[in-house]
Amino acid sequence: MRTAKTTPRPPGPSFSGPSGQNRRNSYLSLILAQIRKKRYYPLLARRRGYQGRVGLWLTISPEGQLLSVKIFQGSGHRILDRAALKIVQRAAPFPPPPPELGPWPLKIKIFLKFYLTK
User: Fold this and answer.
1) 67 contacts 97 by C-beta, under 8 angstroms
2) Contact at 8 Å (CB) between 20 and 26?
3) In what helix (H) or strand (E) does residue 46 lie, and over which residues does it extend?
4) 3-class secondary structure per residue, 50-113
């Protein structure tokens, strides 16, 4: 009996549901969870009461590498914008996206919010 040899694929995320949108949302949830683990609020921004939302475009390779991160909507505070870039860079690399999410590289739009609570 002959057995076929296959090259193992690196483990990636598993997704449920047939819909491509469900798969994209599931992958986006994984990305956001990984980014949340690296979140921080710059001390100087907290002391000065800076708040805002930063819109980012992430470009991710089929292997999950962060190819680029760019601000498309700033918070109005340079310190928060820079922190958002650093947070995403520290969270990378990401899990490999499902192959059907192409075309490659994958572009993802996210927002990071910096709001103070009392």
Assistant:
1) no
2) no
3) helix 43-48
4) CCEEEEEEEEECCCCCEEEEEEEECCCCHHHHHHHHHHHHHHCCCCCCCHHHCCCCEEEEEEEE
Residue 94 and residue 64: Cα distance in Å, rounded?
5
pLDDT tens digits, 9-59 = 344 444 444 456 788 889 999 999 999 999 999 999 999 999 999 999 999
Residue found by looking up tokens 């991160």 in the block: 69
User: In degrees, to the nearest 5, what angle opens at C-alpha 31 toward C-alphas 89 and 14?
Assistant: 140
What's the pTM value of the predicted model, to 2 decimals? 0.80
User: 95 and 33 in contact (C-beta within 8 Å)?
Assistant: no
- CA angle, 65 then 12 then 57, to 5°: 35
